[in-house]
Each structure stands twice: as C-alpha cells, then as structure tokens.
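WARN no homologs supplied; continuing
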Amino acid sequence: SKQISDPNTLVFVAVGALWLQQIRQIEKQIEKLRKQDPLQNQSETIHDLRVAVRKSQSLALAFAPYIPGKWPERIRHELRPLRKTCEVLRDLDVLVDWVVASGPQQTNLESLLADLQHQQAEATEEVLKALLDKQNLSMLKRLRSKLELALDEAQDANHSGVPLTQPQYRLADVAIPALLTRAADLTAWHATLLQGSGTAQPGQNSRAEALHQLRIASKHFRYTLDFLTPAIPAINPALSQAFAEIQTILGDLHDRIQFRARLLAWPDHRTLSPVFANQLVARLEREQDALSQRLAPLLDELTPDWFQANLLRPRQSPGPSLKLS
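OK structure emitted
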C-alpha cells in the first residue's frame, strides 16, 4: 500500500482542502448575513467573508504552477466578484472609523460624518443585495460541489486509506519555491515604489499604484506563508509577525491615500468649508508621511538574501533582525 506519490496531486489535495474550508466559511458568513437583523453592524461579517476570499485567491496564485488543470484560475475567477463587491464597503467603513476617532464634536466633522454614514448605509445595502443574490449562492454551491468531487477523486489515489490530515506538512518540496516567488513579486513592487515620483494626483501616480500592489503582494506572501509554515521547520517564527506589521502600515497608507482622494473630489465641499477640507487633507498628508517613515526601514530589509535567510535559516540561528518596534 502507498500514499499519494504524485507531487501535483498532493499539492492539489493540500491546497484544495483549504479552498474548501474557505468556501464553506464564505457560505457561513453569507448565511449569517441573511439571518442578521438589518440594524446590526454587518461590517465584521463582511470583513471575514472578504478575508476568506483573499486567502483562497492567494493560494490559487501561489500554487498555480504546481496544480494541474484549471482549478487555480477557476478559484480566482469565480471568487473575484465577491472580493470586489466587499472592497467598496470596506473603504467606507474605515473612513467612517477614522472620522469618528477624530472626535466630530470637537472638530466640526458632524456633517461630514453624517454624509459618510449615509453613503455607508447605501453601500451596505448594495453589498448585501449582491452577496445574497441567488445566482451568487448557486455559484458557491456549484464551486464547492465540484471541488469536493475533485478532492474525493484525489483522495482515492491514497491507496493506504489513511486520511491526509494537515497535508501541507508534506509540501516541503514546493513550499520554499512558492514563497520565494511571492517574495520576488514583493521586492519588485518595492523597487517600483522607490522609483515613483509621487508628483501626480493621488490614486493615479506611480507611487500610489506601487503602494497598492505592494500591499496586495504582502497579503499574498503572508497568507501563503501562514499556510506553508508547517512544511518549513527552519522558518523564522517572527516572519509572520513582521508581515503583520508591514501589512498594517501598508493598509493604513492605502486608506490615507483613498481618504485624501475622496476629500479632494468631494462635490463642491458640500458638507465642508474649503478651508476645513484643506486642513483635513493636510492632516492626511502628515499621517502619510509618518507611516512612510515607519515603513521604509522595514521594506529596505526585504532583500532576496533576507528572505533566503529567514526561510532557510538553521534552527539554532536567530536570523537577521526584523527591526520591529
């Protein structure tokens, strides 16, 4: 008797099991939204749904070279509309939280907050309508059923009959190449960021685009890293923590860029005086500068040698400093 010997089949079983877990999580969150009182705050549920989609798509990207057939592209294509639907609301949620934390009573932001909350309510209604659409629910059910069938067929290749629990432990052969490919994307976008002039309008200039792509690359790397950590005994355990820090800063920078662009495009400053709107824009620019200063030393350390050392270091070696506060 023997267990799965074909490496491509093993990768599919390992990654497919996580895809199946995340699809079930998406369905669970949609069912939760369907049952929730409309007056309840649904942002957290939608956030959990979006994260499940992101994780699935990250692994589809990371393991596409190792999985035969069209499953990686199918996962990315089928789940893409869900992610885009949720992202619209996410930016508004974060902006509302930023305004609330600013203290609207003390800073004359009441009218802006009321306007944003109205937009937030409208966006929530549209997102719920899209997520609860019957066609969308049918797509998830169909995707889950086909994946379950494909995994059952792969499991049949496991002639020993021993369940493949936590199969990612057996992905050591592909773990490092998959992570180094994701790391190469990240360092490439960092290089692009360093070349950006940042002189054009926010959201349209090369620096803003590089930051956006760097943020996405960081998420892809971390989700793949968290999944593959059991397969890499020598991995630096602080690596995931380092990317949690980087992701947080990149996310905060993304939000400030989006907030600034939204304020500059506010129709005739309908709820803000031009002077006060300019004060908010200046505040956002100061916050961007402070975040950029925190981010720079962390990104500068992310060289190919740094990734190699922290992914392949001997157990006894402390590895390079991660420069975390």
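Residues 6 and 157 are 9 Å apart (CA to CA).
OK
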